[in-house]
UniProtKB/TrEMBL annotation:
<dbReference type="InterPro" id="IPR029016">
    <property type="entry name" value="GAF-like_dom_sf"/>
</dbReference>
<dbReference type="Pfam" id="PF13185">
    <property type="entry name" value="GAF_2"/>
</dbReference>
<dbReference type="InterPro" id="IPR036388">
    <property type="entry name" value="WH-like_DNA-bd_sf"/>
</dbReference>
<keyword id="KW-0808">Transferase</keyword>
<dbReference type="InterPro" id="IPR003018">
    <property type="entry name" value="GAF"/>
</dbReference>
<keyword id="KW-0804">Transcription</keyword>
<keyword id="KW-0805">Transcription regulation</keyword>
<dbReference type="Pfam" id="PF03861">
    <property type="entry name" value="ANTAR"/>
</dbReference>
<feature type="domain" description="ANTAR">
    <location>
        <begin position="162"/>
        <end position="223"/>
    </location>
</feature>
<dbReference type="InterPro" id="IPR005561">
    <property type="entry name" value="ANTAR"/>
</dbReference>
<dbReference type="InterPro" id="IPR012074">
    <property type="entry name" value="GAF_ANTAR"/>
</dbReference>
<dbReference type="GO" id="GO:0016301">
    <property type="term" value="F:kinase activity"/>
</dbReference>
<protein>
    <submittedName>
        <fullName>Histidine kinase</fullName>
    </submittedName>
</protein>
<keyword id="KW-0418">Kinase</keyword>
<dbReference type="InterPro" id="IPR011006">
    <property type="entry name" value="CheY-like_superfamily"/>
</dbReference>
Amino acid sequence: MVELTRHDLAVRMADLARAVAMPRTVDQILSGVTAAATELIPGADTAGVLLIGAGGTFDSVAGTSDLPHELDQLQMTFQEGPCMQAALAETVVRTDDFREETRWPSYSKAAADIGVLSGLSFKLYTADRTAGALNLFGFQPGAWDGEAETIGTVLAAHAAAALLAGKHTEQLTSALTTRDRIGQAKGIIMERYQVDDVQAFEMLRRLSQDSNTKLVDVAQQVIDTRG
């Protein structure tokens, strides 16, 4: 990998910031972040993102190779490892040599056995019920320095922003869909029973309350009876 000058680094980071601001999917942005990590951070041979959801479900995404996914699976199997620790607890978790790492004995041995000797993980501040980490792996020991941690922290912030923006978009889309369904149901009730907008909504609300059913589900039932 070619060593970047400070100017080149600044230009690349600015490009990445512009890319994150463009209308792209979360997966595309995260893939751009992990690709940038291997480009900008000496010793980072591969990178990926681990997301841990409610109930311990996990998703390994944006890997620059198959290796991050394999390492994430090992951590979920052993229920230990630096990526999990960064996602659920610490902000930055660094390992200089997995052959000498004692914090996660089962995972560290497995990682070293497949040739991964260094690890650097950064906590992602994501949605309330999702934890995440940006994870870098190196095939050589002692790969990381202070600059690697600084660049990784900036990239992790980009990744977290993308995840939060994606969650916001998902919530907004859901809210718009709910609004549209309720509006459509109100229109059907107004036409069918010759009532105004306020009365139609009150009928929906009472149906929801009496049947202990979500308002949007009651609206969908009204829509379904239209035909």
